Amino acid sequence: MSIIFAIILFSFLIFIHELGHFAFAKAFGVQVNEFSLFMGPAIWKKQRGETLYAIRCIPIGGYCAMEGEDGDSDNPRAFSNAAWWKRFIILVAGAAMNFITGVVMIGIFLAPNKNYILPQVSVVEENCAFADYIQPGDTFVELDGEKIYVNSDFSLLMSLNSGDIHDLTIRRNGEIIEYKNINMEMREFPDDDGNPVLRYGFSFSLAESTPGLWVKTTWKTSVDTVRLVRLSLKMLFTGQAGLRDVSGPVGIVQQMSNVAEASGSAWYAFLNLLYFGGFIAINLAVMNLLPIPALDGGRVVGLLLTAAVEGITRKKVNPNVEGYIHGVGMLLLLALMAVIMFKDIFFIVKG
Description:
The chain is an alpha+beta fold. It has 8 helices and 10 strands.
């Protein structure tokens, strides 16, 4: 069921992404030659007007092929001949649709909750290392310069920063208070059985769900997911994480299976997979806007540079040059995807 859910999820996210490009291309009068789900030979296709609609046999990817997208064209309705701002909107529409989809999925996941844990202090124990700095009612705002959107951010950010000395910003009675270089170490506290366990020595507040709090929590969780992508990329570039920590479709299916198996019932498995899907959707939106050739973000950078050059020189830049760059970028991305896929399969078989 996890595999089926994963196939449906990826197919849906690809469809939504390409639908964003398609809808705005049509709205701006750009000719769309083909709107296709998946790759490879077509198992179903239908020509309606100027556009061929198709479902292909390899359940990977999909595309919205616009006239003049990767080269020059004499067609006045070609993508390359549209105003730069129209091309910009068309390019970012796919990622925007994925982001909106992710927000909706996270919202559905959170909707059944009767209570939400807030990043607000409810109890401070005497042995807490920073008991002199916080009190019940305080809301955590930042930790080491990173915003705290949801309560789980506290432990996440603490784990990313080695050592016990941290900077903490709180909100108390509407006033922002900043503390620099304070000791926030874990200490031993007795658990319910009297055994010592390491904790920070404070508790978060629990609030009853309301429509407003649900919307607020959904949005903050979605924004937090965007931040998680940035933190993950930072870990990759700084060497804190490596290729082994990167997952492709195979690895994601395996993670979905683990999530489903860890759920207490089919209903909770569905909700957890729905949240996982929202997480993936927002990840795809952010990653797709990175300034890398072949991705929409790389195309946006090329578009803005081209528009600037054309605005200064009053001469049209040959779009074939950008097309070649994106072609090379696509080959490199496919190679990277292949490496990650074989890595995922290797560790699944090995483990």
